[in-house]
Amino acid sequence: MKHLFCVLMAFFAWCSVASAQVPTDPLSWLGRISSAAHKLNYTGTFIYQNGKSVETSRIAHLVDGGAEYEKLEALDGSPREVVRSNEEVQCFLPDQKLLIVDQSSARRSFPARLPASPNVLAENYRIRKGEVVRIAGLESQQIILEPKDDMRFGHHFWADVASGLLLRARLIGEKGESIEQFAFNEVQIGAAFDKEKVKPSFVRAADWRVVNARGNEVRVEDTGWVFKNTIPGFRQVVSVVRQARKSRGDAYHVVFSDGLAAISVFIEPAAPAKGSAQSGMSTSGAVNIFRRTVADHLITVLGEVPSQALVRIADGVEMRKR
Question: What is the percentage of the chain residues whose pLDDT exceeds 70?
């Protein structure tokens, strides 16, 4: 009887500790999800779905002394591999014998979909808890973010109750439809650090081409362009000059983000003899794209946001008066 009593006391004590670690309010849940994506070791496979398109990827994420290492492999179609060491990103395209070197951008990848400080999201999203369901064999808590205006989409997140790691993320359109979804179908959390898991699978040979996609930071005030239209909650997070096509010169790239959604603006000299034919709205997967020409320059605005947000930004892009 004493033994049974001790077991029961230990069990209730463990339950108390476990419940103390799991947040009760949805905003704290977002902070836990954000932290888990960067601070935990995890490996697994996940599916990306957009309409009828489905892709499977394998991910390994490891942390050592505060440094992050990550390897993402495409398991469908032509071989592709993205290897990250902190902020440096290398993209290997072996079929093209191409290596692209870049740095982490404002667009967040799965499962690190949330900003470091999610509290700012409450300004533009109504945040609430949903159901607890099983995903990839794990109990997960659903967190729902509903936009407060028509300038951004909604989000549904499902996180592992035990660790806080994001297991599924769904982008929700203006009519409540699913635009795209990431979801683990198999995941191991808390793996031991093994640097071999995050090393590139491909060895760059002498005949590979290396493209440095890093941009040179520049102040908006020094670019010759102004952005007259703003969207509440969106702040400038990137402002760089990048090499575009050699025949046309450099392109200016600026990114505005609300912490979840990101809007990219590219400004480059327009191609000869095309002019307004390049203007208009189009889509590529879950990304909306809007183009217009201003003063012999092509303005391309794109992002996983409603089309009206892109038009608003694009209509406010003007050359700075001298």
Answer: 89
Provide the β-strand partners of residue 12. Answer: none
d(CA 168, CA 40): 16
Q: Which domains does the chain have, with CATH numbers?
A: 20-198 (2.50.20.10), 215-319 (3.30.200.100)
d(CA 316, CA 35): 36
- At 247, the pLDDT band (50, 70, 90 cuts) reads low
User: Per DSSP, which regions of 190-234 are E strands?
Assistant: 209-212, 216-217, 225-227
Mind listing the pLDDT tens digit for each residue in 264-298? 999 999 877 554 456 899 999 899 999 999 988 99
Using CA atoms, how far apart are residues 224 and 318, in angstroms rounded to an integer? 9
pLDDT in tens, 158-193: 999 999 999 999 999 999 999 999 999 999 999 888
For residue 47, give Cα distances in angstroms to 53, 115, 217: 10, 22, 34
Complete DSSP assignment for 142-196? EEEEEESSSSS-EEEEEEETTT--EEEEEEE-TTS-EEEEEEEEEEEESPPP-GG
**DSSP summary character for residue 138:** E
Distance of alpha carbon 35 from alpha carbon 83, whole angstroms: 20
CA angle, residues 128, 130, 135, in degrees to nearest 5: 135
Please choose, from the candidates 317, 314, 304, the residue with its C-alpha nearest in 3D space to the C-alpha of residue 106: 304
